[in-house]
Amino acid sequence: MEKIPTLSYIRPFVSTRNACKLCSPLGACIAIKGIEGCVPVIHGSQGCATYIRRYMISHYKEPVDIASSNFSEETTIFGGEANLKIALTNVTNQYQPKAIGVATTCLSETIGEDVASQLSHIRNDNTNSNLPSLFTVSTPSYQGTHMDGFHATVLEVVKNFAKKLPSADKINLFPGFVSPADIRHLKEILIDFDLTTTILPDYSDTLDNPVWDQYYRVPKGGTPISELEKMGEAYASIELGVFTAVKQGGQNGGTEVSGASWLESEHSVKNHQCILPIGMNSNDTLFDILSKISGKDIPVKYKIQRGRLLDSYADGHKYIFGKKAVVYGEEDLVLGLCSFLDEIGVEVVLAASGANSGKLQKEIIKHCPEHGKTIKVISDSDFEQINEACNTIKPDFLIGNSKGNYIAGNFNIPLIRVGFPIHDRIGGQRITLLGYQGTQELFDKVVNAMIEYKQNNSPIGYKYM
Amino acid sequence: MERIIKERSTQVHTIGTSAHDLDCEKKSLAGSVSQRACVFCGSRVVLYPIADALHLIHGPIGCAAYTWDIRGALSSGPQLHRLSFSTDLRERDVVFGGEPKLYTALTELIEAYKPKAAFVYSTCIVGVIGDDVEAVCRKVSAEQKIDVLPVMAEGFKGTKKDGYKAACDALAKLVGTDNEFQAPPFSINILGDFNLAGELWMLKEYYEKIGVNIITCLTGDGRINEIRQAHKASINVVQCSGSMMHLAKEMEEKYGIPFIKVSYFGIEDMADALYEVAGFFKNNEMLQKAKDLVSKEIKTLLPALAPFKEKLQGKKAAIYVGGAFKAISLVKALRLIGMKTVMVGSQTGNKDDYNLLKKLCDEGTIIVDDSNPNELSEFVKEKGVDLFIGGVKERPIAYKLGIGFCDHNHERKEALAGFEGMLNFANEVYASVTSPVWKFFKR
């Protein structure tokens, strides 16, 4: 049996070889799963829904139901409204959902479907009037990546549901595309600051259920629509991630808006944006924001967590100093990881993303004071480009989703699995990266991976590190 | 909530309640959350195992990303099929056309990876934006001097089955292009085995032991040059009949090669496959060798299965798989280890398949075509099953309800075909059904 072929030379490719990104409807489905009682419908071919389900199920290990309007040749010629209506009726009868989110595809966008007006026809025509709330998001797969679909959905949900109401004693949290365990940890932190929060999206239960004593067609959990409506009355938003803005069409090149920035401009909800809180620096920023918003001191519990993390930095720093890391994935994840690795003395030699906002390099330099300027950043990248680059940069470890495992295998180095997807292990949905606590788990993993590598490659082996 | 969507009620049948045929081979109902994928999926799964070909997916990134290294289809040599290549169409390409990008992508990849042939899969929007994929393939083929085969697999143009046909059409263009080759006597092609977890290698050994030569397998451990010689075989032995029947029929028409349908799952079907091939060649020595092989295998296998059977006796199983032919074999294989099938269904079965299942299963068994998570969860609950056999999308339904599960889809890592596979199957079923973890679940 031969090895999977790897080119020994580097040349530019027009094609994408082993994509380091997914298509935008997938991101939309994940965000839709964070709304209580909401079922995603993909307006396009049956395969889009099924492939995305399979991809998500393999990571979350949960039932993930996504309906399709199931285009046929006739649909493609005459338009998809009739199919969409059938799909909405069947989903309503089968799931009795509280809302249905319709994501478009490359197919429905290319034939020029105006789903927003289709939805208003269907709503007006509906004779049995039992349809739930309906909203749509434009997610043509030829535009951007799954993250664009995710953030576009967040923005559409805010625009659809948030009402202008008198100010209330609560805040909004936009966690970005993080794990269910991360969302749960963030909730815990917010509660400890006595903050009442609306989280969008919150799939911490819907994509990581406990076992069931009966089958739930729509899994429990998610942010209730009544809470989404209150997002306009919050006194502050916290937005994790800086690559959250969605390009909005229009003259003069259009503008870039995220759910949080829209609330700020439309409803005067002050937005506090920070990078994904992985590491000491970024968590200090987040906890300062929380302290400021809540008017409370940082709870002792987190001061202790921070202290323990710092203590472990002392215990582990030698084993990772100067180690060379390759980081890949979504831009916000890459930025968060770079900031963390930079502060612990790891040298990031390559930061790659399948996305291409044009801002990754600048943000990395800003948030990585130690080595930021020397980090090689590749946007619009793919795994084969990373693989070939590793030939010359000879990294000590990779950090990112499970799809880079074959590269780690090629170079016989550890892969530290974080992010999405993790298809070759259980527990991807339970990995915590955020907070001092998540950072602690990650730091231990990185240090131990380096120790284990040395131990396994040592001719004598040893019992003490 | 509805148990079954009204429009789907003719696609569900409980044995003993009606004499009607099960409704099938229909396009999935919008909003039903079908477990099926699309035309592209059908062609991709069939051609994927051809290991020395370049597989380029022409479209936006999703279709390629979701099918990267998706099957456990092993290759004894080249591993080119395990890379995922896409033209990754962007908005600009959609507006101005994707042909220039396709041309450049194909050329650069063929130059870099030097494949024996290239398959170019058209996805949904390719036809809509008017790309002439066939013309680009012809041009690159002439320039690069290799076969570049378009696979017309626009997702919306039918169901997964139409994708099987698109794949067979592409294969048919390769078959018969090597006339120099002289086939040894008693030569067959294996159609519809994909060498999941190395199953083909086990089958090959059985066939070789009884004196049968395999020219090519379509498409497990597949090689372009062997496919070119496939028309020299005496017979096509077709498994997974759904995916490969088009090619078998076309080869019968064009080259006069007859075909037989077989299955390699379970002792009975595995033995029948060997006997039928020997019977076709009307060769007594071969038939005797087949009988000897089967009895030798059974002699060790049956005692090895006995302890499993004892523990699994009377347990109930539900089956939901892609092809109905596999479902039929599974019903028999389960019976062999003492288990009873109380629900069985498939994504792509036809009338004959379902009628056979009706005959094979007991009264009260639910038979279902093109099902969905809601129905499947209802059925397994109603029937109180101990085991669910399916693929990745069915697995969480079983586990959420505290039911054992056996993966019989194309991602599995365990060989389940042949005599050896039967023991693996029993072992996996036993491991899942009798695991003590279920004691903590309320059933």
UniProtKB/TrEMBL annotation, chain A:
Protein name (record): Nitrogenase
GO molecular function, one term: nitrogenase activity
Coiled-coil positions: none
Lineage top rank: taxon: Bacteria
Residues in Nitrogenase/oxidoreductase component domain copies: 23-450
Family: Belongs to the NifD/NifK/NifE/NifN family.
PANTHER family linked to this entry: LIGHT-INDEPENDENT PROTOCHLOROPHYLLIDE REDUCTASE SUBUNIT B
Organism: Labilibaculum manganireducens
Cross-referenced Pfam families: Oxidored_nitro
Protein keywords: Nitrogen fixation
Matching SUPFAM superfamilies: Helical backbone' metal receptor (SSF53807)
Automatic annotation (TrEMBL), chain B:
Pfam families, sorted: Oxidored_nitro
Keyword hit for Lyase: no
Residues annotated as domain Nitrogenase/oxidoreductase component: 38-432
The keyword GTP-binding appears for this protein: no
Keywords recorded for this protein, A-Z: Nitrogen fixation
Molecular function terms from GO: nitrogenase activity
One GO BP annotation of this record: protein-containing complex assembly
Family the UniProt entry places it in: Belongs to the NifD/NifK/NifE/NifN family.
Role, per record: This protein may play a role in the biosynthesis of the prosthetic group of nitrogenase (FeMo cofactor).
Entry-linked PANTHER family: NITROGENASE IRON-MOLYBDENUM COFACTOR BIOSYNTHESIS PROTEIN NIFE (PTHR42956:SF1)
Name of the molecule in the record: Nitrogenase iron-molybdenum cofactor biosynthesis protein NifE
Lineage of the organism: Bacteria, Pseudomonadati, Bacteroidota, Bacteroidia, Marinilabiliales
